[in-house]
């Protein structure tokens, strides 16, 4: 069975066709313009693909409440043309197949759980740290949402004692995203992250903020794996710094060997790399095909 | 069908017998002493009760991993005699019925979801703020655990600008529990909370810390209800203070009417009051009886 996957990012769309084993067999990518330009390209790509289901991992915020009149819409984005856009509805009108629908970051968490770093596990958390900071949560075989969906990029963080940067989040100033997203890093140091050498003080301050969110996620979600992706996390020197800071914050309180002795295997980069989101969209499509759930945990551990 | 319920607290045990509708028909309570004194009282209470299942909500930390050799044990508590005690195993040896087993706070979250403030909802978070701070998470029809179980009482918090209290958590100093549990309140103000008048500055500082954890939980879990229980939350003047502070932190970022217009119905006391834990243990027993899950959401909304 061929399954369609749409990773709808704020900058670019990636559409792909894959199979039930998580193999992407074909893909296409184009910039995210207004819906009137972008959605016809999506429709055209899948027009003759004969997919049995389509999964969408979308930039947000999005409406995920099945009983809501605006279910399937992007909600309050400043992106021109996309606010209140009935993304899912437009595609459903065109393709009579089951659809999976979730945030791009929840999709990435699901992708890593299905075929990546959290394969065979029952829970994981995915942070993407790039232009913004996003959080996806996978628990009990499904991406987590409730009131809306996780927006863990905007949690309050403690200020680093040597950091007087005011933060750039338009809503919260110095929340995690305001202090640690790529643009914050660049504004603080007057240079993009990839121009700062691995030994630069930027990285320990960056790790200080990310580690607070990771430690809080461990304490409040107790996930079996933490996956850190996105452009900023390409700076691999961050991983040991974050792991040490998480251990320092937790201070041995949570008694689990994954934290005490094996944290290098617990806080990890995405195995699927930049493809986590597209694989996640594929997994969402697969879950939709199977009536709302696919037991990736059982499948992965076999 | 009669179902047994055990709320195993660090100070006292409450055992009860209830039915599938959440009605507690009988109960007994005794102080938590060493296991050698306490467990025989539990066994004696249920000896002739002919219950079809037993649910246990236990003080922790506890081992919840079914594949662990110490599954069913209390793990690292300083409470004399209870560290590494095989709580679940001791009762299983005596009663050949299905057992539910989770933390006392996860049980309280489940109880409120089954028959209380979150009835009919798919997700809720329960904080108990008393001698310590505990967090229970209910999502997708089940209490959440993974690596271990939520320990959300120990998240880092930003210090209130007018507060120089160092915090009393032996692991973290000024984490949420270290700053906001009942003993922290008493140490900071040299008087127990119930002796401080409602207009005392203690309460806005207390709300400041609790609201940070609540706002972070909204951003990272997106629960449909937040229930705040425990001795400190008997001070009902805290609720409006916490709600206002949560709105201030989120600053309109999460677009949900529950937060924007109806926060008074969203951040609430437990409907089951001090009985949330015992009802939760009953619900754990009922889930065990039904093979690991009971669809309280469907049941509550009918």
UniProtKB/TrEMBL annotation, chains A, B:
SUPFAM superfamilies: Actin-like ATPase domain
Name of the top EC class for this enzyme: transferase
UniProt key word Zinc: yes
A Pfam family assignment: ROK
KW S-adenosyl-L-methionine (keyword) present: no
Coiled-coil regions listed in the entry: none
E.C. number(s) listed in UniProt: 2.7.1.4
Catalysed transformations (reactions): D-fructose + ATP = D-fructose 6-phosphate + ADP + H(+)
Domain of life: Bacteria
Keyword annotations of the record: Magnesium, Metal-binding, Zinc
PROSITE patterns reported for this sequence: ROK
Cofactor list: Mg(2+)
Family, per entry: Belongs to the ROK (NagC/XylR) family.
Protein name: fructokinase
């Amino acid at each position: 069975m061929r399954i369609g996957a749409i990773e709808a990012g704020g900058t670019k769309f990636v559409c792909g066709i894959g199979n039930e084993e998580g193999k992407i067999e074909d893909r296409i990518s184009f910039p995210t313009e207004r819906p009137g330009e972008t959605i016809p390209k999506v429709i055209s790509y899948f027009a003759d693909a004969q997919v049995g289901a389509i999964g969408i991992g979308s930039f947000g915020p999005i409406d995920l409440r099945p009983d809501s009149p605006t279910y399937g819409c992007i909600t309050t984005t400043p992106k021109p043309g996309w606010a209140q856009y009935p993304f899912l509805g437009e595609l459903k009108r065109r393709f009579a197949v089951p659809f999976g629908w979730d945030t791009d970051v929840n999709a990435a968490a699901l992708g890593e759980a299905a075929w990546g770093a959290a394969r065979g596990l029952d829970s994981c958390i995915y942070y993407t740290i790039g232009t913004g900071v996003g959080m996806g949560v996978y628990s009990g075989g499904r991406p987590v949402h409730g009131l809306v969906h996780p927006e863990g990029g905007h949690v309050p963080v403690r200020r680093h004692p040597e950091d007087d940067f005011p933060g750039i989040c338009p809503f919260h100033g110095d929340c995690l995203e305001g202090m640690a997203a790529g643009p914050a890093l660049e504004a603080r140091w007057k240079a993009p992250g990839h121009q700062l050498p691995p030994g630069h003080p930027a990285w320990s301050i960056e790790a200080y903020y990310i580690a607070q969110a990771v430690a809080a996620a461990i304490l409040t979600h107790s996930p079996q794996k933490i996956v850190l992706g996105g452009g900023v996390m390409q700076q691999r020197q961050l991983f040991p710094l974050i792991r040490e800071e998480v251990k320092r914050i937790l201070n041995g309180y949570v008694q689990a060997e994954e934290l005490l002795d094996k944290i290098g295997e617990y806080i990890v980069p995405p195995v699927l790399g930049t493809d986590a989101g597209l694989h996640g969209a594929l997994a969402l499509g697969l879950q939709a095909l199977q009536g709302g759930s696919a037991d990736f945990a059982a499948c992965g551990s076999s």
